[in-house]
Amino acid sequence: MLNEKIKMLLSLADTVDEGDSVITEHTGYRTTVEKLAYLRGLFPIELIGKQDTADTTQEESLLMDYHSALNAVIKDQWGA
Fold first, then answer.
1. What's the CA angle centered on 41, arms 38 and 45, to 5 degrees?
2. What percent of the chain has pLDDT over 70?
3. Quick check: pTM over 0.85?
C-alpha cells in the first residue's frame, strides 16, 4: 500500500527535488544508493548510459544515476 501511495505522489511531482522529497519523507531512505535501489524495485528502470568519468566520485556517479532515474519516472508519469 505504501508503494502505491509513493507512486501516486511521484506522479504529482513536477521536479526531481519534489520527487526526492517524496521518497525521503515516506521511506526514510537517506543515502543515494538506498533511494536508487528503491526506485529500481518500484519501477522497471534500466540504467543504460552510466555517468562515470575519471573526474567523478562513486557518490557523484550514483547521484547522477539517481537523478536520471527519478527524472525518467516523473516524465513517464506525465506521458512526456
1. 100
2. 89
3. no
